[in-house]
């Protein structure tokens, strides 16, 4: 399909890449690179195209996340990662919000500079083992005690797969707190438009000259298209054949993997 | 208000009573009776009116629940309690469902006679301390692995109050699993119509001759009225003055407490 019509690959100046499912598959010991992806990242950089990673990762700081990617062979710097926690910190500062954090231990350092005394909002991430009955009740009590409860959710994923099985993602716990408090959370991360816009700003390229490449039909492809970007779905990671019949979202093209996407884009340069 | 128009109290043959917030307030050591309620129950029984308790209690078996009520001075038998777990057991048997239980330890004996091997549904109750990350992931994995996931929720309350603070109720966890699996739970308990209908069957009185008395404007009053019963809201338990401006539900009358309701009903007999 990608062979037939390559109009989508023209006039590109920058690429936004999802990470899990595009660069690597999460799994034992942190994950394994997807074949050809590290080489594809090197070719993007050598071509002069701008590159930014756009991830909903919230179990580690960007520093730790980049360390893991570099160990897998990806030539990436911290400034090239757009992630929900730094975006949430900007939002907290802009609005004078002091968060109570219900997040993974690995993410806490991202909020080191943020005033967390006398909280007036709750920030929810993929807290994993920190999703205890006591912690959920604590976050709930803080919210229900606010005159106007503010819940900021770092993503709204339903679930994800780890080597020991499927895990409920942050979106499920977001829904629990939304229902209990009769409120709507503010989502920071894909597919929020504002999050893509800050990734584009960091990329330094307007949406019509950028392509998003991801494995999630709704969060990556649909979200990027809403911002005026073109978007490709790779057939790696959480891609399922049924995605190709999605009732609402249609990617600009399908590619088998990141390497194939880069092949086509570089040919059109 | 109750003084002005007592038409609602005429032609009554049976009463359905909510328990927590009507008979007693939950709190330290299991709870304390609401003033006048034990005497009101005695007067109902002496009058010849039929009486059935209709509760969403799912932290204890009916036997343990009745033991607690009797210790507080309420002359109640197990057969006079309609509760979600026995209703769920009937539903499981009718449909050949084998549950995985995510419920409070105190409720497990209610399911002693039910085949729980090779589960083909999940039954969710107010599991309290059993709402762990591991247990929620386990319930989720079972559901998402089913061809057609069946989630049966014993109630759908948002939260409740205990002496050490507010707690998320079963409804919040139901919403988390609904979202993660993209399904709708089946609710057994108030305000489900079928649950009120089985309470009426146990009461042995048709809906137009029955009155529901509860403290929850939506679950007790709204649910009972949907079944053709009259319904009173007491100004005890979780009652809040703002309930009297509820946009959708209007009780047939307000009473200050169960004792006042019984005064009026017995005068009209």
Automatic annotation (TrEMBL), chains A, B:
InterPro entries: HAD-like_sf (IPR036412), HAD-SF_hydro_IIA (IPR006357), HAD_sf (IPR023214), LHPP/HDHD2 (IPR006355). It comes from the Eukaryota. GO terms for molecular function: inorganic diphosphate phosphatase activity; metal ion binding; phosphatase activity. GO terms for cellular component: cytosol; nucleus. Keywords: Cytoplasm, Hydrolase, Magnesium, Metal-binding, Nucleus. It is found in: Cytoplasm; Nucleus. Belongs to the HAD-like hydrolase superfamily. Phosphatase that hydrolyzes imidodiphosphate, 3-phosphohistidine and 6-phospholysine. Has broad substrate specificity and can also hydrolyze inorganic diphosphate, but with lower efficiency. This is Phospholysine phosphohistidine inorganic pyrophosphate phosphatase. It comes from Prunella himalayana. The lineage of its organism: Eukaryota, Metazoa, Chordata, Craniata, Vertebrata.
């Amino acid at each position: 399909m990608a062979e037939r019509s390559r109009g989508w690959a023209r006039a590109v100046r920058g690429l936004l890449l999802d990470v899990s499912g595009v660069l690597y598959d999460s799994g034992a010991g942190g994950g394994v690179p997807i074949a050809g992806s590290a080489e594809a990242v090197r070719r993007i950089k050598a071509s002069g195209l701008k590159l930014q990673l756009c991830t909903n990762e919230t179990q580690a700081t960007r520093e730790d996340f980049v360390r893991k990617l570099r160990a897998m062979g990806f030539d990436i710097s911290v400034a090239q990662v757009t992630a929900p926690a730094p975006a949430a910190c900007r939002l907290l500062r802009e609005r004078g919000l002091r968060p109570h954090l219900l997040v993974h231990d690995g993410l806490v350092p991202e909020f080191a500079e943020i005033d967390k005394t006398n909280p007036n909002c709750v920030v929810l991430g993929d807290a994993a083992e920190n999703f205890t009955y006591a912690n959920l009740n604590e976050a709930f009590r803080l919210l229900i005690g606010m005159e106007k409860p503010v819940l900021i959710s770092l993503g709204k994923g339903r679930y994800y797969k780890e080597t020991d099985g499927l895990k409920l993602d942050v979106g499920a716990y977001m829904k629990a707190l939304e229902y209990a408090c009769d409120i709507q959370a503010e989502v920071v991360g894909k597919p929020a438009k504002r999050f893509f816009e800050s990734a584009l700003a960091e990329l330094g390229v307007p949406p019509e000259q950028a392509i998003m490449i991801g494995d999630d039909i709704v969060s990556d492809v649909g979200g990027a298209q809403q911002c005026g970007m073109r978007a490709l779905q790779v057939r790696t990671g959480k891609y399922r054949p049924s995605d190709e019949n999605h009732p609402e979202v249609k990617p600009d093209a399908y590619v088998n993997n990141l390497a194939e996407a880069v092949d086509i884009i570089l040919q059109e340069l």
